[in-house]
Each structure stands twice: as C-alpha cells, then as structure tokens.
Amino acid sequence: MKKVNHYHHKKVLVLGLAKSGVAAASLLHRLGAFVTVNDYLPLSENQEAQGLLEKGITVICGGHPIELLDEGFELIVKNPGIPYHNPMIEEAVKKGIPIITEVELAYQISEADFVAITGTNGKTTTTTLVFDMLKAGGKLPLIAGNIGTVASTVAEEATVDHTIVIELSSFQLMGITSFNPKIAILTNLYDAHLDYHGTSKEYVQAKSNITRNQTNNEFLIVNADQEETMRVASHSHAKIIPFSTKRKLDFGAYLNDGAVYFNDEQVIELNEILLPGAHNLENILSAMAAAKLSGVSNEAIIHVLHSFTGVKHRLQFICEHKERKFYNDSKATNILATKNAIAAFREPIVLLAGGLDRGNEFDELIPYLKNVKAVVTFGQTAKKIEQAAIKAGIKTIQHVDNVEKAVPVAYQLSDPGDVILLSPACASWDQYKTFEVRGDIFIQAVHMLK
What we know:
α3 (87-95) links the parallel β4 and β5. The protein folds into 3 domains: 11-100, Rossmann fold; 104-307, Mur-like, catalytic domain (UDP-N-acetylmuramoyl-L-alanine:D-glutamate ligase), CATH 3.40.1190.10; 316-449, Protein-Tyrosine Phosphatase, Chain A (Alpha-Beta Complex). The N and C termini lie far apart (49 Å). The chain is 34% helix and 22% strand. It has 450 residues and is an alpha/beta fold. The model has no long low-confidence stretch (mean pLDDT 95). The chain has 16 helices and 20 strands. The protein has a 9-stranded mixed beta sheet with strand order 7-8-6-9-10-11-12-13-14, sandwiched between helices. It has a 6-stranded mixed beta sheet with strand order 15-16-20-17-18-19, sandwiched between helices. The longest helix is centred in the middle third of the chain and has 16 residues, at 278-293.
C-alpha cells in the first residue's frame, strides 16, 4: 500500500455501509482520518455499524439526517447504491463537499496497476476471463470489485508486482476523481439503470468515466461494433484497442476465417473454445486483448479457453446426464440475456423460464424460439411466457410451481442431444431472494436427477 498522508486528521463521512462502506471506514480510520459513519439501518440491527463503533469510529444510524452535513466534513465516501438524487447527497453537492466512492479510495492507496472492466453486459465473464488468463500467464492478478473482495481491501494487500482486475458499475464510476486504470475495457452499452441515472446520456457518461483520466500511456479496449462505445472512445486520450465479432480489423482483436486473432496473429480456432454463445465471443476478444497487452502468451490464453465453461449462473455448464446438457443461466433477468442464451445453441432446447412480473410482454423472444422444442414455466410471468411460446408455434408447454419442480419435468420432455436451459428472462424476487439462490436450486435439482 502506498504511504498516504492527506487523510490524516481529515473529517470524512462514510455514507452507507455494506462491505464497501465498512472497508472504507476502517481504512480511513487507519489512515488517521476523523471518520463518521452514517447508515440507514438502526444500530440495534446493524452488526457492521456495531463493529465500527467498537473500533472507536463515530456511528450514526437509523436515518440520514441532513443536518449532519453541518459538521464540517471535507469529504464524503458514498455507497454506490445511494443515488445522487438522495436528499443528503443533493445537499452535500450544494455545500460543495467532494463525493467519491470506495473504488477511488482503493486507487489512491494502490501500488498495483488496474485492469478495469465495465459495460452493460458481459462484465463478470470478461473480468473472470482476464483474471484467469493473467494467472495462467504467470502474472500475479488479484480480483476485486463486484465479483471479488472489496477494492480497497485488495489494494491494501497489493504490491507493485500485482495487477488488480476489477469489475466496475456505472454507480461506482460516478464517484471517481483520479482513478486511472492501465487497461480499461468497455464491453458494450445498452440502456440500463435509468431509474438511477435518469437518462441514457447520464448512464453513458458514467460508464465513460472509466477512461476519463487515461493518457496515451494507457489502453482502452472497446467494442468496435457499437456506435455508442466508439463515440466514448473518440473522446478518450488512451491508446484505443478495438475488438469486433463482425469484421476483420486492421489491428486489435477480431474473428477471421473461423479463428480468433490479435492484430495479425491467430490465437485460437473458434471450434476449440469451450464457452458457448456469440455474445461470449465479445467477452473473449476483449479479455484476450487485455491479456496480450499484459504480455500473456497465446499458450496461456488457449489453456484458459480450452477449459473455461462460464461464470456461475451465467450460461454455466452444469453437467451432461444421459446425453442431455444442462446449463444454468439464472443471471438472465431480462429478455436480452435470454435471447443471447438461446442463440448460443444449435441443439434443440427445453427452456425453463419465468419469475417476477415487471409489466412487460415477451413477444421480443418469439423470433429466438425457433430451436426451442418445449417450455417449462414458473413464477408470476408464467402465463405471459406461455403466450409467447404459443405464438412461436411451440406445442409442448408445461407450467410448474417453481424451479425445483421444473427440472424433472424438463428432463421428461427432453431427448438425447437436447440442451436443458434455465434462462428465466425475469428477476427472481417473486419466489427467490436472489438469482443466485434460484440458480443454486436449479443446480441441486439437476444433480438430484442422477
């Protein structure tokens, strides 16, 4: 960890806890700051706040009193989930109090370079692929952020020999000032989180912060197949490394004649890659580009792509049982994700779908259901998905109570050579606390078939 003195005796408010808030408050306390933590959950129900109180940190719980901002704070470290239209944040902005997120704090103390990944889809898979490729290549990667340990905790342990591979959300990127990754990846951009950002423009602006501080000494790996991502790249000062699944490029990562290339060098044949899905080729290309820029050999990259079957709950291969292949795509909480999952297979599919009803219809799925031979539905949206399946001409449709019951029914409807795919196209909250819980129940039910 770098020696950082500028927080000594600085009055800092950590707003919102969870893992990142606890880590930020603890770190700032060790750096000599006068730390106050403010969390909405009452102290009696707040074990994290109680732990900080025992360390001698001032804790105020049970609400966000705006008058707290009159105490002369010089900085706010905000939980990424708290939107900027929160009254406390709006008042802090009026008072001119700087606001950062914990990722910025991590960058300030880190001796290690960062490889940072953002985008609407594919962040987690790309982050995992980069980490695995760097590790296979003999580098010393550490994984942080949304799919790893809290960034500032990792940064405390990292040395100049490490590389921190981090997945970043738009929420986190809104709270940076000096954060500057050696390599940044922008996977793609679609409308998302508009309830938080308000407009598509604000969302894209937040994502583009990943390259805001980059110079010609750093790299931005960017999707060359999207106008919006290339527009972001046009404003970057970094060296632009494009990737494309649709055309051969003069340089960067691309597909050509059934193989994956970086610049003019063939790295691997497409038929050697284990991870299914056209959308995953974007993730593979961008991760490979980051690995090559980091000095990883083709052999190490090939080794990873020969064995990588996907991140848990994201088109994750579970097993093959009696010539049926089972895939867990519980993270598919929207129609676009399910479209991508279905398009990943040429084999006949028995699709398990359903979940929380957000008021939308599912007619967008119809053109993608051509190789779906049967549908098993569950949850609030079951009838809507069944209507879409009927319109698509699917004759075998069954409704069950939940995912656990869907698995044996799907098996009975399948034949050797089929894919049995959980890709719900819906959030899980009508029946399950998280998509992870839903996916774990699917996995358990698959193993029960054995």
